[in-house]
Amino acid sequence: MIKSRAIVSDGQGNFKLTSVEVGEPSYGEVQINIKASGICHTDWDSVQNWNKEFIVGHEGAGIVTAIGEGISKVQVGDKVVLNWAIPCGQCFQCLEGNTHICDNNSPVCGCGLAGHAHPEACQLDSKPLERSFHLGTMSEYTVVKESAVVKIDTDISFESASIVGCGVMTGWGSVVNAAKVQAGSTVCIIGCGGVGLNAIQGAKISGAAKIIAIDINQDRLDQAKQFGATHGVIATKEDIDFKQVASQVKSLNNGAGADYAFECTAIPALGSAPLALIRNAGTAVQVSGIEQRIDFDCELFEWDKIYINPLYGQCNPDRDFPRILALHQNGQLKLDELVTKTYSLENLAEGFDDMLNGRIAKGVILID
Q1: Are 311 and 111 in contact, with CB atoms under 8 Å apart?
Q2: pLDDT of res. 108
Q3: If we measure between CA atoms, which residue out of 338, 368, 365 comes closest to residue 38?
Q4: Taking the complete model, does pTM exceed 0.70, yes or no?
């Protein structure tokens, strides 16, 4: 076992930097020296609500330091991006191509710890310690299944690579994989944080003619234009039904609703908002993973509108991560510019505070 500094939470609102023990990988597993870990709203939610002890973090990049038997994708010394939606490759969903909602391993589909490396791989006080979303990236070292890593074959910093495995994938993939946005279309993006900015980038890469960014913060709208938005609309908290926003969208789009609209705020009250912005037979996408009960006005579905709720941008990591990295390498996808600020493990609290107060697009912990 080797000593590793890690952020450990009790899932009741508390977390601390402490020392854990990380062991050797077993069959089909790899040990990673984490170099960078993204800070995500999901990390904050898990710290507050999971009600159990675990290593925090589910976005990360690092270097393979050891491999178990049966490994073919990577070798010691490889740089890798981590992926939390770990496919088994054998269940119904995996065979259908839906590896992001694996019946056996998905941590958000009721599969428990099936996607974890062996439980004893990470320990606290000689007892097995769970890792967030099977990864636990806010740690100097971790052990994961081979299917949780994708080799980095491009020139990219660890901090930029680390955010590919959640925020970038979710926003970009919801546009490219789930909605399949068509060239020449009009797209609305509600919420211009880290996920929304990547939805904007996905729309630009897909060839959308109009990309209308919507936010309550003018600074975020200004930033959105740097990532590909063609127009910006200020929303107000009083416009709960998005009627004023819908009117502005139509004025920008020759009197018609948008072809696609993406909700990227995680605000339950806005769960139905994308439906208000699209034309008949348009597509509304709830990107942010709202899980609370929402009451819909069925008139919002008139007529022939489609509403989808994809997980993780329908990620297939071995297909999508290399595509994203290649787009970054050729200058089509901004990743470096998304990382507003970096932190250390010691000042994670500052990172959470900056994120929750909207001061950053994306924060990343750098681990020496």
Answers
A1: no
A2: 83
A3: 365
A4: yes
